[in-house]
Amino acid sequence: MTTKELFGKIYQAAQNCGYEIYVVGGYVRDLQLGKNSKDIDFVVVGDAMRFADQLKKELHLRTLVRYPRFGTFMTRYYGYTLEFVNAREESYSSHSRKPVTRQADLRSDLSRRDFTINTLAMDISPQGYGRVIDVYHGIDDLQKGVIRTPLEPEQTFADDPLRMIRAVRFAARLGFTIEEKTFKAIRKIRDRLKIVSQERITDEFNKILMADAPSAGMRLLDESGLLEIFFPEFTALKGVEQKKKFHHKDVFYHTLEVLDNVAAGGGDLKLRLAALFHDIAKPRTKRFSEQTGWTFHGHEVVGARMAKAILRRMKYPAETIEYVAKLVGLHLRPMALVDEEVTDSAVRRLIFLAGNELDDLMTLCRADITSKNPNRVKRYRNNYDRVVQKVLEVEERDRLRNFQPPVRGDEIMRMFDLQPGPMVGKIKKFIEEAILNGDVPNDHDACVAYINQHKEELLS
Ligand code: ATP
Ligand code: MG
Prior knowledge:
Layout: H1 3-17, E1 20-24, H2 26-32, E2 39-45, H3 48-59, E3 64-67, E4 72-77, E5 80-86, E6 88-93, E7 96-103, H4 106-111, E8 121-123, E9 132-133, H5 138-144, E10 146-147, H6 153-159, H7 162-174, E11 177-178, H8 180-189, H9 198-209, H10 215-224, H11 226-230, H12 232-235, E12 242-243, E13 246-247, H13 251-264, H14 269-277, H15 282-285, E14 287-289, E15 293-295, H16 299-313, H17 318-330, H18 333-336, H19 344-354, H20 358-367, H21 374-398, H22 409-416, H23 422-437, H24 444-453, H25 455-459
Parallel strand pairs: 2-5, 10-11
Antiparallel strand pairs: 1-2, 1-8, 3-4, 4-5, 6-7, 8-9, 12-13, 14-15
Helix pairs in contact: 1-3, 6-8, 7-9, 7-10, 13-14, 14-17, 16-17, 19-21
Bound molecules: adenosine-5'-triphosphate and magnesium ion.
């Protein structure tokens, strides 16, 4: 189904209710930029809930999700995601965050939208099809590449402080600049962000991280003062300290480079988060030694812990948190394996610890090379190639990924006539270590024999 046919049907359904309907927001904006999206927002001048019933009937929709409190509903149709909202006006009072909403016409609905580039509406009637309604000079701002609020910026942001992060999101994703007055308003009332729920903030933050070059958005978040509010551990990475002849690199800008490197390789959200957090504990672990200069011993261990706590606060899902903590905790290991004479058992340990995340870990480590010295970059890259080579060799020898100890707990209990308890765990650990050390192959019968051989030592 073409978009035009789709719009024809939707327009007809609105007509049958006696309502006006327009396409608004992202779809119209993206169309002006030459991008076609299947995510379409509509504004209904009328009762959206009644329109939902009509549309369901006419298009034979199976599922339709209603949010009557917000006057919105959404549905999917032939691969399109369609969202409908009542045209409305909102008024906010200073003592309550809950807006009072009233039915409104198209113009006042557009005025409560966040940015001029998002106030564009499109006529989908057969007579005026494709005509763009541009009350706030959104097309002009699209051409100039400017993010600006349609009304007084301070008021717009005070009404819904999430819009401040959305400003950064659109600037980062579209490569636009935030107009000066709008940006000043953000700096001025940035503290209001604190009243916004973490879930909404994280949603926008993720979109910023998924930009082609997310560092631009991170810089804007920093310059606007917003980052300090919801992610102060990251702004703490800024700055370089110099003592004697020693200085370390600015971890803030280094991390942004690593983030962009991972993004350039098409990294997904969780890998980008791992890049963002990999050096998060450097400020906390920083020490100075007169002889060797700055050190950050243990920053990967402390960092994994910090990443968990921060990501939990930011309401990320448990598996994302585990993944990021794992990569942060392991990000120094591959480099430690570049020595010529590194043992198989060290390589095996890395394969075992990283499991399915090994490829992502190597991607992160390569992205971590931000030296400006081309010879050094080349040497580091070669080192990683050698590590990967070693990993492949060892893997081929003992197929270790998704390593499962070949002797299970219940079998150990039977062999030794044990009750469940710490002794079972101790024996399992013993056999795991033996496999990783290469003392015994990763094979059931060999392991049983090996346990029997060491029976006395184990039980003593
Ligand atoms: P995309 O769908 O590409 O993320 P979008 O512009 O469509 O971008 P949505 O979040 O889908 O963004 O919102 C649709 C439209 O609703 C926006 O274009 C904007 O006009 C309006 N809008 C959304 N959120 C807000 C908000 N917090 N304040 C004001 N207007 C908003
Ligand atoms: Mg949208």
